[in-house]
Amino acid sequence: MGKVGDLYRQRVADGRIEADPAQLSVLPHLDRVLDDISAAPPPEKRSAWRAFLGVGSPPPVAAPKGLYLWGGVGRGKSMLMDLMAEAATVPARRVHFHEFMQEIQAGLNRARQRGDQDTVRPVALEVAAAVRLLCFDEMQITDIADAMIVGRLFQVLLEQGVVIVTTSNRAPEDLYKHGLNRQLFLPFIALIRQRMEVVCLDSPVDHRQGRASGGQVWFCPADAAAKAAMDAIWSDLTGDAAGEPRRIEVGGRSFTLPLFADGVGRSGFWDLCGKPLGPADYLALSRTVRVLMIDGIPRLSASNYNEAKRFVTLIDALYEAKVRLIASGADQPEQLYNEGEGSFEFERTASRLREMQDADWGQDKG
Q1: Are residues 179 and 290 in the same domain?
Q2: Single Gene Ontology BP term (predicted)?
Q3: Which of 147, 152, 99, 164 is nearest to 124 (CA)?
Q4: Is the N end or the C end of the chain the one with fewer CB atoms within 10 Å?
């Protein structure tokens, strides 16, 4: 595979993307990471069994400097991350940060059950035994559980020679802003600055806006006309099936999707976001459906902050899984959450909701 710059220019030549001066300016930083990895000696390997037990750890190595790429929504960060994973010539993994932290939390639970004193280290060693390059998309820290372990996790990964590249909508200093016990999180920000090159993708263009749209998939306001349109789409997609509840199992528990037929799910907003569901639930949902219909998305604000936060997590899961979304809402995506705590984070969600209205969205799903 060629370098990121080569792949990017090939995509431009093929007409798959449009050249963006801001994106072009960060290509050398991405290629620098790949060059440094290629030049660095590979870390000592252990058997998977010894890695699982967390014993026989190889000595710490100086991992090449990673990259923290941040900027506004729709600027092409995820696309560049895809190209980097494709261009890598070492074992690499590209994963959404939410999904990765769910895997880490599951690993920590297994370590606790084994009675490990240091639960983070064996989990990090398992990861380090499998990859040399970790590409995280959309790093954001909103959960105190993640905030308390991510610094230790990154520290061990870097000690083991894993190179980390991540995208984010925020500068490092704005991660977990105003979070509980944030002073305990500050050393992680210092670690990012020390071990990762911080680069801003400062493009004035939101590439998710202005895309060609197909049939209408977002209806507002969420009134009787919107419901009738949603009903007609349901009938068309399912062959007039009545649908029935679908139980979705997640880690020994379950939740219910109100309607399911032929790969299409349908639910009211409050059924999915008004209940104590989290990333693992929404990831399981995104693996169950190829199309999800959501009725009655309300205006979001501080008064329904928890529900809004769940909605953001739900859209992240659907977006990563390329699930087609059809929904009715109180307003257009950009106008759903205009002020108050959480409105900044919602800018990315609104941009994704707009992109998901594209006619080609999710065509490679299933």
Answers
A1: no
A2: cell division
A3: 152
A4: C
Tokens of 63: 């991992």
pLDDT at 213: 47
Tell me which residue range forms the domain holding 118. 4-200
Q: pLDDT (tens digit, 9 = 90+) per residue, 201-219?
A: 987 776 655 444 457 899 9
Contact 360, 213 (CB under 8 A): no
Integer angstrom CA distances of residue 13 from 7, 17, 247: 10, 8, 46
- CATH code, domain with 87: 3.40.50.300
Residue in the block written with tokens 């349908």: 266
Q: Compute the distance between CA of residue 91 and CA of residue 182 in angstroms, rounded to an integer.
A: 34
Q: Could you tell me the two tokens for 269?
A: 């907003």
User: Residues 15, 18, 20, CA angle at the centre, nearest 5°?
Assistant: 155
Query: How would residue 67 be classed by pLDDT, with cut points 50, 70 and 90?
Result: very high
Report the number of distinct structural domains present in the chain: 2
Q: Which two tokens stand for residue 140?
A: 């954001």
First to last CA, the chain: 26
**205, part of any domain:** no
Distance CA 174, CA 171 (A): 5
What DSSP string runs through 245-269? EEEEEETTEEEEEEEEETTEEEEEH
Q: Are residues 116 and 230 in the same domain?
A: no
